[in-house]
Specification:
The complex is a heterodimer.
Chain A: H1 2-20, H2 35-85
Chain B: E1 2-6, E2 16-20, E3 26-31, H1 35-43, H2 46-52, E4 59-62, E5 65-67, E6 73-79, H3 93-112, E7 115-117, E8 125-128, E9 131-134, E10 140-142, H4 152-168, H5 176-179, H6 186-192, H7 201-217, H8 223-228, H9 234-250, H10 271-288, E11 292-296, H11 304-309, E12 313-318, H12 321-334, E13 339-342, E14 370-373, H13 377-383, H14 388-398, E15 401-406, H15 412-419, H16 430-438, E16 441-448, E17 455-461
Parallel strand pairs in B: 1-5, 11-12, 11-14, 12-13, 14-15
Antiparallel strand pairs in B: 1-2, 2-3, 3-6, 4-6, 7-10, 8-9, 15-17, 16-17
Helix pairs in contact in B: 3-4, 3-9, 4-6, 4-7, 6-7, 7-9, 14-16
Classes of the chains: A mainly alpha, B alpha/beta.
């Protein structure tokens, strides 16, 4: 549990830092994207991006456990099938 | 080698443009400046994926057709032809919503392939077989790592703002698109939306807050330097797309009972009369064998489907947003070829945009092989005081043939219209009607609808001889 929480925070920190790291971005130039809209996107990207990161993270955790569960179920159904044969 | 005329609807993008070739077919020229993006678009598999999923019109490359501006040409493609060009301000709520979701789905797939939509105009979507298709093959650009989505604001203006206004305020606000060709300004949308819309995170963020941010940074000359040093993560990019999708999906239109929404349950037609009317109309349509049909005042498209079933590209126009919505939802279920659209015949869509020629007016998109005007004429002649001669002139301008239903004063529906006003229509008689239409049309067939006072005419435009 402690491990998952720390991984959680680490992931958020990573996603935040990657969102704000310095690098040149090219503007395609065909459409006027609106300076306010570009800045605003940068700001909300850190919030909604963290949401995506958390969602993916949980999905992985859940799929890890559900695949374990599925394995158990398969084993169980196998044993039932085997029992019926007996 | 044939040369085609340039179209007035695509001149902003330096990467290419659309032009009309022989037989009125639409072609797209790709300029040298659009070459890299276009090649990447094909090579990365995005084109194949979008075409396969029915999100983008497919195309073939042609080498025997050129535009009149060949200087910068790299390639010419012939896209799948759209049967009828419609505009967002003519769509029903669900049509606009489906178009918004298709645009986001396309942008997501593009992002997965390392590309991005460089614009998110609702005009890039057209309906084919009741499905929204993206038509601008040149809208895809190679994604630059760390860039925000340039078309974010445009998406909010073209899709989210009108949908939110239709959902929270009034369905008729969908028509705002005709006033604002680049979508509803977000400050206006923010002003018009009720306070409760702020409880929706998506609307709060992508309309109210975005509008504030726009106002804050509009005059900021340092704004560019703020963005140029920053990088947006892929998580952030996907997060914005998912948030927009969620906001769009949550918007619903609680159907209201309008004048026409329940029309077919409230007419003075018996089932037998309806069947007889259908059979007369079907026979008339078979006589004409039209390729293109406009059903004006189509309601939910009961009679439009007779033309559709006989293989015509049929557009079902109606003034009532509920009827158009119902028609679309039925058509969408089975992918019918019918296209339901909203249109007020007393003030049809105008030619708008640059030089009044970017978007075509309703009349400019005709003439068609057959116009159907069923149970319509009394609304135009009596409720709207349009003289019969003017009606004949209008129909002659948009149709080569006409199926028109004359609804006399003895009919209960006309009696209702005249109940609250003086009868100032002495010429509104069968004789007056035939006299007015005879100047521009040849009357080919006349049949009374059994069990009613109404008469169905099949007419041929005299100018078609």
């Amino acid at each position: 549990m402690i491990l998952t929480r720390s991984m959680f925070f680490l992931l958020i920190i990573i996603s935040f830092s990657s969102m704000c790291s310095a690098s040149d971005t090219r503007i395609l130039g065909y459409l006027d994207p609106g300076s306010g809209a570009m800045i605003f996107q940068m700001i909300i990207a850190s919030v909604v991006g963290a949401g995506v990161a958390i969602k993916l993270f949980w999905r992985n955790i859940l799929s890890f456990f559900s695949s374990d569960k599925n394995d158990d179920q398969t084993e169980e159904s196998d044993s039932i099938a085997a029992g019926e044969k007996e | 080698m044939s040369k085609g005329d340039l179209s007035d609807c695509s001149f902003r993008d330096p990467a290419g443009f659309v032009f009309k070739g022989p037989e009125g077919k639409i072609y797209r020229q790709i300029n040298e400046s659009g070459r890299n993006d276009f090649e990447f678009f094909l090579e990365c598999g995005l084109y194949a994926k979008l075409a396969r999923e029915g999100l983008l019109v497919s195309h073939v490359e042609v080498d025997d057709i050129t535009s009149t501006e060949t200087g910068a040409a790299y390639k010419v493609i012939c896209p799948e032809q759209v049967p009828f060009i419609s505009y967002p301000y003519e769509w029903s709520f669900s049509q606009l919503k489906d178009a918004a979701l298709a645009t986001l789905a396309i942008q997501k797939l593009a992002f997965e392939c390392g590309m991005t939509l460089k614009d998110a105009s609702a005009y890039n979507i057209q309906f084919i077989k009741s499905r929204p298709f993206f038509i601008d093959t040149l809208s895809f650009a190679v994604y630059q790592e760390g860039s925000p989505w340039e078309a974010y604001k445009q998406f909010c203006q073209h899709f989210l703002a009108p949908l939110a206004l239709m959902s929270y305020c009034d369905i008729r606000l969908g028509k705002l698109g005709e006033l604002f060709i680049d979508g509803v300004p977000l400050d206006l949308a923010s002003k018009l939306l009720p306070g409760r819309s702020k409880f929706s995170v998506g609307i709060l963020m992508h309309i109210h807050m975005l509008s504030k941010a726009q106002a804050k940074y509009a005059a900021d000359t340092n704004a560019k330097s703020v963005t140029s040093g920053r990088k947006m993560s892929k998580f952030g990019y996907i997060g914005i797309l998912e948030s927009l999708e969620k906001a769009v999906r949550k918007l619903k239109w609680k159907e209201v009972d309008t004048e026409w929404g329940d029309y077919y349950n409230n007419t003075n037609y018996s089932d037998d009369s309806i069947d007889a009317k259908k059979s007369i109309i079907s026979n008339y349509i078979k006589d004409i064998s039209p390729k293109t049909v406009w059903d004006l005042g189509a309601n939910t498209g009961v009679f439009s489907r007779l033309a559709m079933e006989l293989g015509a590209d049929t557009v079902a126009f109606d003034i009532d947003p509920v009827a158009v919505e119902k028609n679309y939802l039925v058509a969408r279920k089975t992918g019918e070829t019918i296209l339901p659209l909203q249109l007020d015949l007393t003030n049809p869509s105008s030619a708008i945009g640059w030089n009044n020629s970017e978007r075509m007016s309703f009349v400019q998109r005709g003439p068609v092989d057959l116009v159907m005007a069923l149970a319509l004429i009394h609304h135009l002649a009596i409720s709207n005081n349009v003289p019969l001669e003017k009606l004949a002139e209008f129909f002659a301008g948009v149709g080569r043939n006409l199926i028109i239903e004359f609804v006399p004063k003895e009919d209960s529906q006309v009696k209702k219209l005249l109940a609250t006003r003086d009868d100032i229509f002495p010429h509104y008689t069968r004789e007056g009607f035939e006299k007015a239409f005879n100047t521009l049309f040849d009357i080919v067939n006349v049949e009374s609808i059994p069990g009613s006072e109404r008469i169905l005419y099949l007419m041929r435009n005299k100018s078609e001889k």
